[in-house]
Amino acid sequence: MGAVIFRNGLVLTMDDTHTVLPGADVLIVDDKIAEIGVGLTAPPGAQEIDATGGIVMPGMIDTHRHMWQTAMRGYGADWTLTQYFVWYYLESGKHFRPEDIHAGNVLAAWEALDAGVTTTVDWSHGLQTTQHADAAADALESVPGRFVLAYGNIQQGPWQWSAAPEFRDFVNRRIKGSDMLGFQMAFDVTGDPSFPEKAAFEVARDLGVPVTTHAGVWGATNDDGIRLMHEHGFMTPQTVYVHAATLNQDSYHRISATGGSVSVSTESEQSAGQGYPPTWTLRDHDIPVSLSMDTSVWWSGDLFSAMRTTLGADRSREHLQAHGRAETVTHVHLRAEQVVDWATRGGSRALGLDDKVGSLQQGKKADVVLLKNDASPVMFPILNPYGHVAFQAQRGDVHTVVVNGRVVKHEHKLVGADLAKARADVERTVEHLVSVMGRDAWEKGMNPDIPETKVMDNPYTYTEWDAGSAQWKHGSAQ
Ligand SMILES: [Zn+2]
C-alpha cells in the first residue's frame, strides 16, 4: 500500500489527553499510523501531503445512518416522524428492491467519505430479503470506507427475520470479522409486555454481535422497552441506544449502569420529533455519547452538522431553562472540544473499535482527515482548533481523507468514485418509486399539509399619528 505523510499540520490527536501538536507530521505506512512528530523522515516514495495551514484529525465516526434511504435524498425535508413512518414502514419501504438498497448505500458511502466520515454504521432496516442484505453489503464493500452493517427489516418482527435460516446463512457468508465491515443487529423494542423481541436478543447473544436500537423515541419506543431489556439481561456495554430522547431517570440509570452508549442525532431529533436532543441530561448520568446523522432523506451524512447542532441544542436548552428560573448562564457546560471527541472517540468506543480507530496514535489504523482550504476565508486564523472544527469548518474544507492507509479523497476530490454510475443508479430507483407510487402520491408524500397558523390579535395596530393630540389614532383595520 505504501506510505503517506501529512506535513506541517495542526494535529488534533484526540488521544486520551487530547494532545494537540502544531507544525507536526503524521506518517502512515501501509494501513497504520507509523509515527507522529515534527520533521519526520519519510520512507522513499511516500506520498507527501502539505498540511500547512490545515488541521489533521482522526476520521469521524457516524454511529447511526439509514444509508439505503439516501436514494431519496432531501425528499422528506418537511416531514415529521409521522410522514417518515407512513412512507417507509407502511407504504413505500416495501417497494425498495435490492438494487435500490445498493444505489442508496453506494451514494451514502461516498457522501460520508467526502465529509471526512471514515466509519459509518449503516442502520439497514430495509432488508426484506437476504438478497437485499447482499446488495447492502456489496455496496459497502465497493466503497473504500469503514462500515458496520446493522442488519434490520422493518417489514417483519425481529423475532421473525432473526430466526430465518437465510439470516444465519447471510451472517456466515458475509461477515468475516473484518474491521472494514463490522456487524450489528438493528431492531426496536416496542414495550409489549410479552417481550417478543427476546428471541432476537437471544440470536444476537448467540452470534456474539451487538444490538443497536431506537430507544426513547416519542410515540414509538419508551421506558418499558428499556426495562424489559434490562430485566432480561440484554443491556450490555456494546448496546447502542439511538436518540434516547424521551426516557425517564430510571431508564438512563439502567443504560449508565450497564455501560451502553447513546447515539445522538441532534438534527434528526430537532426536526423529526423523537424528543429533545438528550446530551444535556446524558452528562448528568455519565452516559457515553456518539454522534450520528440518521438519514439523508432529511439531512446529509456530515458530522460537522452534528457537532454544530449538538452544541446549539445543548446550550439552547441550558439557557432557556436558566431563563425560566430568572437566572443567567455565564459558563456553558458543553464545549467544542467535547463534540469533536464525540465525533471521533465517542464513535470508536461505542462500536468497540477504539483500539483501531478514533484517534491519531502510533499503531492505530490510518483513518485520517485533513481540513484545509486555502481558497476559503473561513479557514484562517485557526486560533481555537476544536472550535474551528465544530463551528467554522464544513464539508468543502475536507481536503484529504485516508481510510485504512488508502487516500480516498485528495485536494477536495474523491478518488476512484464513479459518481456518474451512482447518479444513474439512483435515478433508476427514483423512477421505480415514482412509477409504483404514482406521480400524485409521490408529490403529496414530499409536501405534507401545513397546519394553519393563527396570527394573534395585536393591540398596537394603529395607522396614524395625530400630532394635535400626540396620540396614535386607530386605523380602520385594527
Ligand atoms: Zn434512525
How is this structure best summarized?
The chain has helices spanning 81-91, 98-114, 130-141, 158-161, 165-174, 198-207, 223-231, 249-258, 266-272, 279-285, 303-324, 336-350, 385-392, 419-437, 439-446, and strands at residues 3-12, 20-29, 32-37, 47-50, 55-58, 60-65, 117-124, 146-151, 181-186, 211-215, 240-243, 261-264, 289-291, 368-371, 398-403, 406-410, 413-414, 462-466, 471-474. It has 478 residues and is an alpha/beta fold.
Features:
478 residues, 9-stranded mixed sheet, binds zinc ion, alpha/beta, 15 helices
Would you give an account of this structure?
This protein is α/β, with parallel strands linked by helices. The chain has helices at 81-91, 98-114, 130-141, 158-161, 165-174, 198-207, 223-231, 249-258, 266-272, 279-285, 303-324, 336-350, 385-392, 419-437, 439-446, and strands at 3-12, 20-29, 32-37, 47-50, 55-58, 60-65, 117-124, 146-151, 181-186, 211-215, 240-243, 261-264, 289-291, 368-371, 398-403, 406-410, 413-414, 462-466, 471-474. The strands form three sheets. Strands 1, 2, 3, 4, 5, 14, 15, 16 and 17 form a nine-stranded mixed sheet that branches. The chain has an eight-stranded parallel sheet with strand order 6-7-8-9-10-11-12-13. Strand 16 (406-410) and strand 17 form a beta hairpin. Helix 2 packs across helix 14. The protein is globular. The model has no long low-confidence stretch (mean pLDDT 96). Bound molecules: zinc ion (ZN). Zinc ion is lined by residues 64, 66, 123, 214, 242, 294. Zinc ion (ZN) binds at residues 64, 66, 123, 214, 242, 294.
How much of the residues is beta strand, in percent? 15-25%
Q: What is the alpha-carbon Rg in Å? A: 24 Å
Ligands and ions found: zinc ion
| Helix coverage percent | 25-40%
Oligomer type: single chain
From the N-terminal CA to the C-terminal CA, the straight-line distance is 76 Å
In total, how many beta strands?
Answer: 19
Alpha-beta classification? alpha/beta
Largest sheet: 9 strands, mixed
Mean pLDDT: 96
Low-confidence stretches: none
Helical run tally: 15
Q: What is the 3D shape?
A: globular
